Amino acid sequence: MILLMLSSRCSRRIIKPQGFTLIELLISISILGVLLAIGVPSLSEYMVQTRVDSQIAELHRLVLTARNTAINSGKNVTICPLSEGSCTGNWKAELSVFTNEDDDTKYDAADEDIVKVKGKVESGDTLKFNQARITYTPTGRLVSGANSLFSFCPSNYAELSRGVSISLSGRIYTTQDTDNDGKDEDRDGNEISCS
């Protein structure tokens, strides 16, 4: 009996159709279109900035790993792009960190160890370095050369370029925007560029 009373009460209600009218739907689509037009360019730049930050952090860790390995192992450690066991000048390629007994530009699998490998740079992006290789001594200093700089420049976003500086003493620094112009500068105040 109670069930019968409940069902009769429910059947008396008038159920109104629910949904959107055509005008409400068109207004919603228009608002969504405006928001997308504003947000997509910012999202694109944000994604590039994230890629740049990721590459710089990975380079910083790679160089730090090489320095720490040299200090802890008591051996020279080299970073360079390897091709068939020899260092090349193609810094966009895969970078290898390896112990370097002979202090040369070759990796000898018989008595040297690969410590870490960094994948190649994404197509279109540029990674430049002003020397053929980086070699750390067991004291944590560079074998030779002078202060050096990795410059990473994303494709079509030159203003987002960043870098990693390495001093002759072996210390590693990430570039920063020191003059607040939206572009990173090296330790001498020069803007990061890959040209």
From TrEMBL:
Membrane topology note: Single-pass membrane protein
Pfam families: GspH, N_methyl
Keywords: Cell inner membrane, Cell membrane, Membrane, Methylation, Transmembrane, Transmembrane helix
Segments crossing the lipid bilayer: 20-40
Keyword Transmembrane helix: yes
Region (Disordered) location: 174-195
Family: Belongs to the GSP H family.
Protein name: Type II secretion system protein H
Organism whose genome encodes this protein: Thalassotalea insulae
